[in-house]
Specification:
- The protein is mainly α.
- Helix content is 67%, strand content 2%.
- A two-stranded antiparallel sheet has the order 1-2.
- α6 runs antiparallel to α7.
- The protein starts with a helix and ends in a 9-residue tail after the last helix.
Length: 248
């Protein structure tokens, strides 16, 4: 009898954790996507059945991504899901980190990014002194999708051999021509991708001032990963190794 009662209490605890986590997800869905947060019953008055199915599919997909991120947080923190939620509820900083993490996870189709985001939250729960740093990681990860991941992967590789007459055997960074050799489809979008990575502190132009007297602008562009960029890429790689073309 005592054993059965213990199992019942354990089941109730797990169920409460799932309900609490799901409630948090639903709240974030409503805040991040007003349409997705509207009750389906109310929507029926304004949209037809096919559109309603699309809205429901979007809601379900976003909610599942949020659940995956919270599950990854639980594993990283070494806490059960209900304990994780209880811990987050005690701290406004953790609540903010949770909100940013789940919103970012809901918005991405990349499984490895969802897990990496969840790990950031889990690390913040495990050690609250890291919350600010984890928020920065979440923002950095949130800003990159498959095109930026491909570019990060290229810039992380060994650079091309240096031209004849250079002091180094290899280029100190990635120039535009070499990047486009690896990613020819980026010709019209490279500036935008680099600007996004630069804005988040993931890459830096290490060629500024390196080659005085060289009039070729491409020769002065030497893109390299920052320590922060290597850290974010390592989080993604830890979930699912990225292939040579920058995709899983």
């Amino acid at each position: 009898m005592g054993h059965e009662a213990s199992e019942t209490r354990a089941g109730s605890s797990a169920e409460s954790g799932v309900k609490a986590a799901t409630g948090a997800i639903v709240a974030v869905v409503g805040a991040a996507n007003p349409i997705a947060g509207i009750a389906l019953g109310a929507l029926k008055e304004f949209v037809d059945a096919p559109l309603l199915r699309l809205v429901e599919m979007d809601r379900a997909r976003r909610a599942e991504r949020g659940r995956q991120a919270l599950a990854a947080s639980s594993r990283e923190a070494g806490q059960s899901l209900d304990r994780l939620v209880q811990t987050i509820e005690t701290s406004s900083d953790l609540l903010t980190l949770m909100s940013e993490t789940v919103q970012s996870a809901m918005a991405t189709p990349l499984d490895e990014k969802i897990i990496a985001l969840g790990r950031c939250l889990g690390r913040g729960v495990r050690d609250e002194t890291t919350v600010d740093a984890e928020r920065l990681r979440v923002r950095g990860l949130a800003s990159i999708e498959p095109p930026e991941v491909k570019l990060l992967e290229v810039i992380s590789r060994q650079t091309y051999p240096a031209p004849t007459g250079w002091a180094q055997d290899r280029l100190p960074g990635w120039r535009r021509p070499e990047i486009l050799n690896e990613l020819p489809g980026f010709a019209m979008a490279l500036d935008a991708s680099i600007a996004r990575l630069t804005a988040e502190g993931l890459v830096i132009d290490d060629g500024i001032g390196r080659l005085p007297g060289d009039d070729a602008p491409d020769a002065r562009e030497m893109w390299v990963l920052t320590d922060f960029g290597r850290d974010c890429l390592a989080l993604l790689r830890a979930v699912s190794p990225i292939g040579e073309d920058g995709v899983t």
